[in-house]
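Friendly challenge for the regulars: who can give me the structure tokens for this chain first? No prize, just bragging rights.
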Amino acid sequence: QRLEAFEKALRTLTPRSREVFILRKLHGKSHDEIASVTGLSQSAIEKHLYRALSACRDILEKLD
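First reply, four minutes later:
Bragging rights claimed.
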């Protein structure tokens, strides 16, 4: 159930937020590495990560 909820949360993200989240959390890339791949600023990366983590948290909280 939690994995399905996590996948649902990822599907709700914009493509850019999903990309940044996957690069950071699944591939372990640093903010600098993500910036070089995506061309985003550090603050934009942080905003995308915040959105992604918030979406995941919100969906997972509904399970509890």
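Helices lie at 2-12, 15-26, 31-38, 42-63. The longest helix spans residues 42-63. Your move, everyone else.
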